[in-house]
């Protein structure tokens, strides 16, 4: 702390390292090392008896083959759901973020506060509330049925759309906030300039607003897609056995079946796919404004 | 100086877009309103169902209005115990992570040192790891080490994911401050210690408070990582999850509504306090 208070940098050459060391050491032990444990477990074979299971590390890549062949459906489903939820988040967040940034005037902070407020309720309880809203005897199903949008025996709960809806709802805040930040930065004079140069509204939107909001869309997409693809609560509460995602399998294999190598291999697969996806995506859209 | 600038931002004319047709504007506002309504829909349900009088074990369909859930919010000792444990975990883990994370943030903003960008990047990585993978990785570590899952492993894991959030928040709030104020204070004869307490600390405290609140909220709400490393220990989200499978008492809604109300109150107090400071 003394290093922060003095302007004499010569004297405190060691100070910054002393300040970062505790956190880096902690993250080294409890963030980096666990991934080595995970990788090691994913390459082990389980042996021993049911009562006394043992793990033996022997470069068993069979776990990965098994992960791909057994859970192909769940892997594909996970990324389709997460992708659709991310797109829905962009579509829903854009008008709201736009209105907050350009039209809200003195109500800007109030609306921002309102946007954040629902997220003070535990994630699980919000998802239970969706279970109530989408229930077979609930008013949403009733209303959709009476206007003919849903067949008479149709249901919302336990469908893919319920799971995707839940994923969208639970992470949309991570789309709204970065999108708002990037829209807020746009100089309104740029829009006036485009109008003065006889641009139509649509053209001003596609040529000025949309490109300038891309950093927000990019950051928001990552912040939605990554947690959505690892989630298992929405599929568990709002879905059925036909809508299980990778997260559900990992959770079950680790905590119920206790087949650690298979579960670890599946976790590694999930992480690697996300990592590759993130790299390709950031490469395609540029990373300057990401952090 | 900075407060004056902030006041100017606060009272600035709303940005106007010239020539947007009225109906397009209206449509946009309606859309935004609908999205806001969508965000609140489950919240209305949660508050409403805290007044429900459910028949049977599940509080999923509306049966009738009652105040008895509110009269007895702590009716289920396991729920209360779980909430207490979660508050305990959130407080302890935030306290530790706050020291570790703030030190890194201060070093990153106030010092120049080799490997700074590497540290920066390294801190972002935990924010991008999916929770289920982080939980799984921590579980395999604890299995390898032979540590029994429980209170200690929960706190250790929470600190691990909180550090990055805290470091990022404190760093973001510290950027762009006028640090020559420290030099000014010392030029005017203040000792380094006095400068630290009278100048540096007041500048960084708002960032640290914001980071602590974020970290506390994240810890209180964390289900996925905790689920992997908790063993048979039950935190508040874990209790809620078990309830979904067995029985959902309306007291869950009562406590959730109460937490929401308290957050709202804190938010309002914080806003008024800031407004007052800007006006002063």
Give a verbal description of the structure.
- The complex is a heterodimer of chains A (291) and B (280).
- With 291 residues, chain A is mainly alpha-helical.
- Chain A has 14 helices and two strands.
- Chain A has one domain: MetI-like fold, CATH 1.10.3720.
- In chain A, 72% of the residues lie in helices and 3% in strands.
- Chain A is globular and about 75 Å long.
- Chain B has 280 residues and is mostly helical.
- Chain B has twelve helices and no strands.
- Chain B has a domain of 173 residues: MetI-like fold (Orthogonal Bundle), CATH 1.10.3720.
- Chain B is globular.
- Chains A and B meet through α1, α2, α4, α5 and α6 of A and α2, α4, α5, α6 and α7 of B.
How does CATH name the architecture of chain A? Answer: Orthogonal Bundle
Order of helices and strands of chain A, N to C? HHEEHHHHHHHHHHHH
The major pleated sheet of chain A works out as: 2 strands, antiparallel
Estimate the global geometry of chain A from the Cα principal axes: globular
Count of individual helical segments of chain B: 12
Low-confidence stretches of chain A: 1-6, 287-291
* Chain-averaged pLDDT of chain A: 85
Looking at the structure, the CATH topology of one domain in chain B is MetI-like fold
Task: Give Rg of chain A in angstroms.
Answer: 24 Å
Q: Could you give the order of strands across the largest sheet of chain A?
A: 1-2
In terms of structural class, how would the helical and strand content of chain B be classed?
mainly alpha
Compute the number of strand runs of chain B. 0
Number of folding domains of chain A? 1
């Amino acid at each position: 702390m003394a290093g922060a208070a003095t302007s004499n940098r010569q004297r405190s050459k060691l100070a910054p390292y002393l300040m970062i060391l505790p956190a880096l050491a902690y993250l080294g032990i409890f963030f980096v090392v666990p991934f080595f444990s995970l990788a090691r477990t994913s390459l082990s074979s389980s042996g021993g008896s049911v009562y006394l299971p043992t793990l033996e590390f022997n470069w068993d890549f069979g776990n990965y083959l098994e992960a791909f062949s057994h859970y192909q459906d769940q892997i594909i489903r996970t990324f389709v759901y997460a992708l659709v939820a991310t797109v829905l988040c962009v579509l829903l967040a854009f008008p709201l973020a736009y209105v907050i940034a350009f039209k809200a005037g003195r109500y800007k902070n109030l609306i921002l506060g309102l946007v954040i407020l629902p997220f003070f309720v535990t994630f699980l309880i919000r998802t239970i509330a969706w279970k109530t809203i989408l229930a077979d005897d609930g008013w949403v199903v009733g209303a959709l049925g009476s206007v003919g949008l849903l067949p008479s025996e149709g249901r919302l709960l336990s469908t893919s759309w319920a799971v995707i809806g839940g994923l969208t709802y639970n992470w949309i805040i991570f789309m709204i906030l970065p999108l708002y930040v990037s829209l807020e930065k746009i100089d309104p004079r740029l829009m006036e300039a485009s109008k003065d140069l006889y641009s139509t509204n649509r053209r001003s939107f596609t040529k000025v607003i949309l490109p300038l909001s891309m950093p927000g869309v990019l950051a928001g997409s990552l912040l939605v897609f990554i947690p959505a693809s690892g989630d298992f609560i929405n599929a568990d509460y709002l879905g059925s056995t036909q809508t299980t995602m990778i997260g559900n399998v990992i959770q079950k294999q680790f905590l119920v079946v206790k087949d650690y190598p298979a579960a670890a291999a599946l976790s590694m697969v999930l992480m690697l796919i996300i990592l590759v996806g993130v790299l390709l995506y950031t490469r395609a859209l540029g990373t300057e404004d990401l952090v | 100086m900075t407060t004056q600038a902030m006041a100017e931002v606060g009272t600035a004319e709303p940005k106007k877009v010239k020539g947007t047709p009225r109906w397009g504007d209206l449509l946009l506002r309606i859309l935004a309103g609908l999205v806001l309504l969508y965000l609140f829909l489950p919240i209305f349900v949660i508050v409403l169902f805290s007044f429900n009088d459910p028949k049977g074990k599940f509080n999923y369909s509306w049966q009738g209005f009652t105040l008895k859930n509110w009269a007895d919010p702590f009716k289920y000792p396991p729920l209360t115990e779980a909430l207490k444990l979660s508050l305990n975990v959130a407080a302890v883990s935030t306290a530790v992570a706050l020291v570790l994370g703030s030190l890194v943030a201060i070093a990153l903003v106030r010092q120049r040192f080799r490997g700074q960008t590497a540290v920066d990047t390294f801190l972002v990585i935990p924010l991008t790891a999916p929770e289920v993978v982080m939980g799984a990785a921590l579980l395999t570590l604890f299995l390898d080490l032979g540590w029994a899952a429980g209170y200690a492993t929960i706190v250790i894991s929470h600190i691990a994911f909180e550090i990055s959030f805290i470091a990022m928040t404190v760093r973001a709030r510290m950027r762009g401050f006028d640090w020559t104020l420290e030099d000014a204070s010392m030029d005017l004869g203040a000792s380094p210690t006095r400068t630290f307490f009278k100048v540096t600390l007041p500048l960084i405290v708002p960032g640290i408070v914001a980071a602590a609140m974020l970290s506390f909220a994240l810890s209180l709400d964390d289900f996925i990582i905790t689920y992997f490393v908790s063993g048979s220990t039950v935190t508040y989200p874990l209790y809620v999850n078990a309830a979904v499978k067995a029985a959902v008492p309306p007291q869950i809604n009562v406590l959730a509504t109460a937490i929401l109300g308290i957050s709202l109150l804190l938010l309002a107090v914080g806003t008024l306090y800031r407004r007052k400071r800007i006006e002063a």
